[in-house]
Amino acid sequence: MSAVTTDPAEASACTTTGDAESALCATAPLRLMAVHAHPDDESSKGAATMARYAKEGVDVLVVTLTGGERGDILNKAMDRPEIRADLAGVRRAEMARAREILGVRQQFLGFTDSGLPEGDPLPPLPDGCFALEPLETAARPLVRAVRAFRPQVILGYDENGGYPHPDHVKCHQVTIEAFEAAADPDRYLDCGEPWQPAKLYYFATFHRARFMALHEEMVRRGLESPYAERLEEWVEDHPGHEITTRVPCADFFEVRDQALLAHATQIDPDGGWFACPREVQVAAWPTEDFHLARSVVDTEKPEDDLFAGVRDSVRCIGG
Length: 319
Ligand SMILES: [Zn+2]
What we know:
Elements: E1 31-36, H1 41-44, H2 47-55, E2 59-66, H3 81-85, H4 87-102, E3 105-111, H5 135-149, E4 153-156, H6 166-181, E5 199-203, H7 208-220, H8 228-233, E6 245-248, H9 253-262, H10 278-284, E7 287-295, H11 311-318
Parallel strand pairs: 1-2, 1-4, 2-3, 4-5
Antiparallel strand pairs: 5-7, 6-7
Helix pairs in contact: 4-9, 5-6, 7-10
């Protein structure tokens, strides 16, 4: 993959304060946007891929729909009263650190975390949360961000949200809405100049083939695999989207792990995220994987580059 240099002519004069009203603008010819529900999601899905593209000069922007205010504290060492008292502030600081580690830009889009409902029957979602917003209200800041940043490639969740958190499902819905509406001059009239993204991918991170490969490599090395039970019960992937694109990014697994650890309230350093040694991952599954869900450019599958079919046209236009 060739390096991409920053073309000052591509940079726009709009502000970069990072709040929901002033969207971040493009600074490089190739641009990748990752749409996530909560701070920490960017570090657990596609993080090594983003770090690799950012290192190669691609302008990478993470947009985070909610502030993660209703996340549980999943790391015992961080479960302290002063952290609970300002979880939103703590999570913003964690996000800032993770963003620095990954070498990407990031913008909160200003919605309120819906929380993960638990119990039987499930409790109702809290008033004013992201998942209860009407689609157009929920998609508006994302449409504005897409039109300002003008990404060729957008990464998002599939229709199940990757896992059934209401914010993740909503995140999928607004990503589809923004991908389809951003180029339409008759929609979202107050959200900037229309922009046609070229490709939309779904993250395909937690699929059976990958966990099977990790499991087999651990067994081969005489290590105790944490995945045996899970794999026995795992009949098939849902919704089972075809993996169209595998991006080699093993050199950035360490960066990914550091970014995950920056989310200290959410990630237990002794927990499942780190149950498989990095060298096993590098040997058994050195890619992050994606499903090409929409494309307006021609591309040959399988791909190993999210910008396949895009690079040549960018070079033509950019000269
Ligand atoms: Zn999440």
